[in-house]
Specification:
alpha/beta, Rossmann fold, 2 domains, 6-stranded parallel β-sheet, globular
Length: 391
């Protein structure tokens, strides 16, 4: 197949989960198909990445134009075309590349580039939207405090639902990374052709490194500028960490990830907590912890951080939101607990039971090898591309 891939950024650096996902898929798809890339970005890919593509075309992200009068501002504020900036230059570039390449299928990754679906009208589209966004916006709205926040979050929720209903049907097939996200889309936009392809993990890269864990210790990793990550770990610190420290006064917690928000950075050096910020490699931090926690209370999609911890044979304690869409078998490869006191009791149980930690770690590693390798996930995405293309 000739595949035209549209992304909202070049797939670098690989510390970003979105980029890592594209990298693994393209590296495998390029062995069997001709993949062309159009991306919102400047600069170039490194040679080893560029050679995966038959062609690469980038378009700089423009400064969104400002409305010239109040009426235009109001119109733009409630236009689905303005949920993400719709740049005529990008539209023309996508159209020209599609005309030159004549792809069998257009693979649109993420939400941002769906706004350019009209540029490839007549060519089958796989809308690889990854996460469903309107339900997360609804939850944020339900938690809003104050009239202004309620109005702002209500509008955001309304506009994301409108975006889904307008642009998702332009794709022949919509692909998501979790069953829950699929169910939300199915409810809000009935009649779509939906598929679920969970994210994967590289079990050769993420594997036990053989370090002796510093016991008792916990680790949490992820981009700390991502609001659900920040909210989850701050909530854990406030509601659960004192309970864990009472049971294990010497326990430590490492919060590992780039760009920590101020509320996360403020936790550094508090009661055995270390906030590392950006690190070149998260694996040593995960490897030397007794267990991995994922205490998320908001967000969507499938959690790469849990897959990586599983691949490294770490015992994982997660909230239901953190484990949604994964092949979770409580007591075998994970312990699932509600946020707050229940989560604290689960952490204390895992830290206090060597055999349980070993069983959970072995079960998680086995789950990754059986179901979540990138080779297996690429075959699933490839089947979606072929179905969309009509092959």
């Amino acid at each position: 197949m000739r595949i035209l891939l549209l992304t909202h950024g070049l797939p670098r650096p690989l510390t970003d989960g979105y980029n890592l996902r594209i990298e693994h898929y393209v590296r495998r798809l390029a062995q069997r198909h001709e993949v062309h890339l159009v991306s919102l970005d400047v600069g170039e890919l490194p040679p080893d990445a560029e050679q995966l593509f038959a062609s690469v075309k980038t378009v700089p992200v423009r400064q969104p134009p400002s409305a010239s009068n109040p009426l235009q501002r109001l119109r733009w504020a409630f236009s689905v075309d303005q949920v993400y900036d719709c740049d005529p230059a990008v539209h023309e570039t996508v159209r020209a590349v599609a005309e030159q390449v004549r792809p069998d299928v257009v693979w649109i990754s993420g939400w941002v580039m769906l706004g350019y679906a009209e540029a490839v009208a007549g060519i089958p589209i796989l809308g690889d939207v990854i996460d469903e966004g309107a339900e997360e916006a609804r939850v944020i709205h339900s938690q809003a405090v104050g009239l202004r926040d309620k109005l702002v979050t209500r509008k955001r929720w309304y506009m994301l639902r409108a975006f889904e209903r307008h642009f998702f049907p332009k794709a022949k097939l919509i692909c998501l990374v979790s069953d829950a996200d699929r169910d939300f889309v199915q409810r809000d936009v009935p009649g779509l052709n939906l598929r679920v392809v969970h994210n994967g993990v590289d079990p050769d890269h993420f594997r036990p490194l053989g370090e002796q864990p510093l016991h008792p210790s916990l680790v949490f990793e992820g981009t700390m500028a991502h609001v659900p990550n920040a909210e989850g770990i701050v909530h854990f610190r406030r509601t659960t960490w004192p309970q864990v420290r009472e049971a294990f006064p010497e326990a430590s917690l490492t919060i590992c990830g780039r760009d920590p928000l101020p509320e996360v950075q403020a936790l550094d050096r508090e009661d055995g907590i270390e906030v590392t910020g950006f690190v070149d490699d998260v694996r040593p931090y995960v490897d030397r912890a007794s267990a991995f926690i994922s205490p998320l209370i908001g967000g969507a999609g499938i959690k790469n951080k849990v897959l990586q911890a599983w691949a490294m044979a770490k015992a994982v304690i997660a909230t239901p939101l953190s484990s949604g869409g994964l092949d979770c078998r409580p007591g075998e490869n994970i312990v699932v607990a509600e946020p707050g006191a229940s989560f604290g009791r689960a952490v204390i149980e895992v830290l206090g039971d060597d055999a349980l930690r070993q069983r959970l770690g072995e079960g998680g590693r086995r789950t990754v090898l059986d179901r979540y390798s990138w080779d297996a996930k690429t075959l699933e995405l490839e089947a979606c591309l072929e179905e969309a293309a009509g092959s």
